[in-house]
Amino acid sequence: MFEALSDKLSGVFDKLRRRGALSEADVGEALREVRLALLDADVALPVVRDFILKVRERAVGAEVLSSVTPGQQVVKIVNDVLIEALGGEGAVPINLNAAAPVPILMVGLQGSGKTTTSGKLALRFRDRLKKKVLLASLDTQRPAAQLQLQQLAEQAQVTSLPIVPGQTPVQIAQRAMDTARREGFDIVILDTAGRLAIDQELMNEVKQVRAIVHPAETLLVVDAMTGQDAVNTSKAFNEAVGVTGIVMTRMDGDARGGAALSMRFVTGAPIKLIGVGEKQDALEDFHPERVAGRILGMGDIVGLVEKVTETIDQAEAEKLAKRMTSGKFDLEDFASQLNQISKMGSLTGILGMLPGVGKIKDQLANANIDNKMLKRQAAIISSMTKKERKLPDLIKASRKKRIAAGSGVTVQDVNKLLKQFDDMTTMMKRMNKLGQKGLMRQGMGALMPQRQMPGNRRPF
After folding, report:
1. Contact 105/213 with Cβ under 8 angstroms?
2. Shortest CA distance to 121 belongs to which of 110, 111, 131?
3. For residues 81 and 50, is the Cβ–Cβ distance under 8 A?
4. In what order do the strands lie in the sheet with 245-249?
């Protein structure tokens, strides 16, 4: 998401940074390129106009034109306006400030990911907030929609409202609230029906349900991949039922990203959550300042740290660290390390959270860094015997052929893995030998492989 926009904006700002001082014409030229980049990313025209106007007002003036680093100052102004456009500093939480059971109404078009998001939200409430959640499908239009939500409820280990054939959406909503009150549920998630397009029947149905349950939140689920159509959908739902928050799905895709930049301006409602994958836990808070940082190539270090904290097993990580420092690290430990990394999700997504990685994405693409590589390496290790994992030096030609055949790779792939492991263990040994003081004194270069002159054993 935002890759094309990020690339174009990076190009514009690189030109600005190379100039010692900026004239009003320089700023105007840069803003024209920013405007084209935003339009190409499918940002709504009124949003682009407002964005450029705000940047121009702040950028064209003594603050920037007399600045020591005017290019950097313009980038900061664009970053600030971008954060404002996306909703301001900090994530906006789901409003649960109501008497239990708290009703949450999920609305949106068919195919937006509304039902899947309802299941993800239920899991989030159960895991993070320890709430008792009831899922109820009000979709009487789409075949098997109620069964789909029932299956999602089972996966999330929450309760789903029993299906009663023939009931209307309003009757289902009323029964869901009655059941929740009687059985002591904290939250009721009501998944309404969608349509392929906005029509009056759909809006009337949502209005009737809303009037009965008085939801604490009316969350509109939109597919980020639909671009400008997502903006039009949001505007229509907001005018009809009053949206309090937006959930954008498929934010891990390769869409242009303009819909996310347009939502707050068009509806006045904040983006509260984003779907970043198919797994049930792939639902994240939307942080405008972090998204702005990623668009401008500044990365998202805070998000990366949070992801590590949530997914990495602390006890396992400490155990691996001890084995590394004691020199007892083997291929079993290496496999465990690969497993920890794979839990964090897409490697390209993780790398995208690091500042400046956008500038070397072509090199990364050529390196084939992806989760398939991790799975392939894990398969190679799992095809080894326990003794081979403990003592990799045992693995010679015939064993390599057996391991390659067992894991469905080539002998070359097995050699690459063993070389990678060997480099890692060599670096660990050097770290242990140098100690903290030696490492500080000699720097990271002391850990690199030592080259030797022919006939001379001393490194240079």
Report:
1. yes
2. 131
3. no
4. 159-160, 133-137, 187-191, 102-107, 217-223, 245-249, 271-275, 283-285
Closest by CA to 90, choosing from 249, 305, 290, 355, is: 290
Angle 416-419-423 (CA atoms, 0-180°, nearest 5)? Answer: 140
Domains and CATH numbers, the chain: 3-86 (1.20.120.140), 102-298 (3.40.50.300), 307-447 (1.10.260.30)
How would DSSP label each residue in 228-276? HHHHHHHHHHHHHH---EEEEE-TTS----HHHHHHHHHHSPPEEEEE-
| Predicted confidence (pLDDT) per residue in 141-158, tens digit | 877 889 999 999 999 999
Encode pLDDT of 298-326 as tens digits.
544 445 555 555 555 666 666 666 666 66
Query: Are the C-beta atoms of 19 and 61 separated by less than 8 Å?
Result: no
| Cβ(387)–Cβ(332) below 8 Å | no
Q: Which H or E run contains 170?
A: helix 169-183
Q: Is pLDDT of 161 > 90?
A: yes
How far apart, in Å, do the first and last CA atoms of the chain sit?
45
In the block, which residue shows the tokens 């499908």? 137
Eight-class DSSP state of 160 = E
3-state secondary structure of 82: helix
**What is the rounded CA–CA span in Å between residue 244 and residue 221?**
11
Residue 38: C-alpha distances to residues 4, 32, 46, 271, 374 (Å): 10, 10, 11, 19, 36
Dihedrals phi, psi of 130, to nearest 5 degrees: 55, 40
Selection from 394, 281, 283, 269 nearest residue 331 by Cα:
394
Task: Please say whether the beta carbons of 131 and 156 come within 8 A.
Answer: no
| Cis before 454 (ω within 30) | no
d(C-alpha 21, C-alpha 416), whole Å: 50
Cα 85 off chain centre by = 19
> Can you tell me the distance from the alpha carbon of 191 to that of 134, in angstroms, rounded to the nearest whole number?
11
Which position has the token pair 């400046």?
356
**Mean pLDDT value of segment 104-110:** 93
